[in-house]
Amino acid sequence: MGVAMTEQCTCGTLLVEDARFCHRCGRPTQELAAEVIPPPVPAERQAAARPSLAQIPVSFRNPLALRVAFVMSLGIMLMEMIPGLNLLFVIWWLAAGWVAVVIYKRITGAAITIGAGARLGSITGVLTFMSMTVAGALQIAISGRQPLDEMLKQTPQAAELSKDPVALSLLLLISLAFVFAVVVGTCAAGGALGARFAARGGTGIQSAG
Q1: Residue 208: CB partners within 8 Å, gap ≥ 6?
Q2: Are 103 and 194 a contacting pair, CB within 8 Å?
Q3: How many CA within 13 A on the CB side of residue 175?
Q4: Which of 77, 155, 158, 209 shows a CA-CA span of 20 to 30 A to 57?
Q5: Rounded Cα gap, residues 138 and 144, in angstroms
Q6: How far apart are CA 30 and CA 21, in angstroms?
């Protein structure tokens, strides 16, 4: 910061050493040098400095992938609440992975690999399974064990297992693991198929996979 100091004010008064103002007229005796303001960075350079959405790998650390998968999981949950349409749950799981890839591709404007599409579909499947589990737990909490008991009565083997808490817990864990594998696998297959067919109309920009 440069400083210009004069020994005598413009009014003719002799200034005191290191005085900032004239004790007679009040005029500042020090003039601050103009600060050097850096030129603004062009928008193109700012955009190039930040990683684009297409350069972020598709994973749980990708915020856009999580948002798309979350929206699709909510869509599946709503479809499964409609009587009649809930019987087509496998089709909705497959379509969820497919549509997630289409939405992700439109937002990023880049082609997505089959592997990245499968990962996006699997993320959708994981969130879908979580939403299904939460919805089922809420239904049991509201209506009690009556729906579960009715299901157990339809299967004699399961009814016998219900008398053993350990066996019942093991059966429940195995059933949840099986449903998880089916949901995630189906959504991942839909994502891979969506990426495969979406690649035909791609822009040529390859998304990080």
Answers
A1: 54, 55, 56, 57, 58, 116
A2: no
A3: 8
A4: 77
A5: 9
A6: 8
pLDDT in tens, 57-111: 888 989 999 999 999 998 888 887 788 877 888 898 999 999 999 999 888 887 7
State the Cα–Cα distance between residues 167 and 149, nearest whole angstrom. Answer: 15
In terms of domains, do 128 and 189 share one? Answer: yes
Q: What is the pLDDT of residues 4-19, one digit of tens each?
A: 444 677 777 777 776 7
Does residue 46 lie within any of the structural domains? no
- Look up residue 35 and give its two tokens: 């600060």
Number of domains in the chain: 2
Contacts of 59 (CB under 8 A, 6+ apart): 65, 119, 123
